[in-house]
Design brief:
The protein contains 7 helices and 6 strands; from the N terminus they run ααααβαββαβββα. By secondary structure, it is an alpha/beta fold. α1 runs antiparallel to α3 (36-48). The longest helix has 24 residues, at 54-77.
Length: 185
């Protein structure tokens, strides 16, 4: 709502459509808004936004980080060797999954090279955006992988297994490692 009000205010004041860059800048820092009352109202809207405000962003980020730490602990517990996202970024990679397995594993008969943690529910809209913006890029660079939607997902979205993107709602319990399969023979 604050965005719409701010856009209208600037449009009337400048007699032109304001740029997205200007709007975003003013929403992040309402002190840039020339009208003090409107600046305060935009600030209040932003702070009290229960869906998209900065407080909600901080909470989402913290929950996401917590689940990545949990996943890291599970990988270590299973003695799986991996490279974490921060290590990959330090090597110059721009789009990276949370973890790349140094030795691939099999989950439900599918080879997995990388794991992405999503501390959210996998709905159709967000999953399609993630496929386009992240998952297919990971697949192109690193091969097949696993996405864990910790809060569940719509079952019909798990339709790319054969192409190399597996969805789960928890850490898999049936991981087959090279070491494990060699020990059985």
């Amino acid at each position: 709502m604050a965005r719409i009000v701010l856009e209208r205010f600037l449009q009337e004041k400048e007699q032109a459509i304001p740029s997205k860059t200007l709007i975003n800048s003013m929403l992040r820092d309402p002190s840039q808004i020339p009208d003090g009352v409107l600046a305060n109202q935009v600030y209040q809207c932003t702070v009290n936004d229960c869906c998209y405000g900065p407080l909600v962003d901080c909470i989402k980020h913290a929950i996401g980080h917590e689940h990545e730490v949990l996943l890291r602990e599970m990988l270590l517990e299973k003695n799986l060797s991996f490279i974490a996202e921060d290590q990959l970024r330090a090597k110059g990679y721009d789009k990276t999954p949370d973890f790349i397995l140094e030795v691939p594993v099999a989950v439900e008969g599918h080879i997995i090279h990388w794991i992405e943690s999503k501390a959210s529910f996998g709905d159709e809209s967000s999953h399609q955006a993630y496929l386009q913006d992240q998952f297919w890029s990971y697949w192109n660079r690193f091969g097949p992988g696993l996405v864990i939607y910790w809060y569940g997902f719509i079952e019909e979205l798990d339709c790319h297994r054969e192409r190399g993107i597996l969805l789960k709602d928890c850490f898999p319990t049936d991981i087959v490692t090279l070491r494990h399969s060699m020990a059985q023979h």
